[in-house]
Amino acid sequence: MNVGEVWYIMAREASQVEAEDGVAELRGLGVNFTNFFLQRTEPSSLPTAKY
Hints:
51 residues, mainly alpha, 0% strand, single chain
């Protein structure tokens, strides 16, 4: 799964801060991301996010 998709789902279901924390937690657990396109995903995905 694309980590950008993970971020998007978390941002939509919780918040952008929760999504960023979740991705940071995955990194802290040693998950390595290849082709990490989170910067492309974030701004354009937020209109449907709930705050």
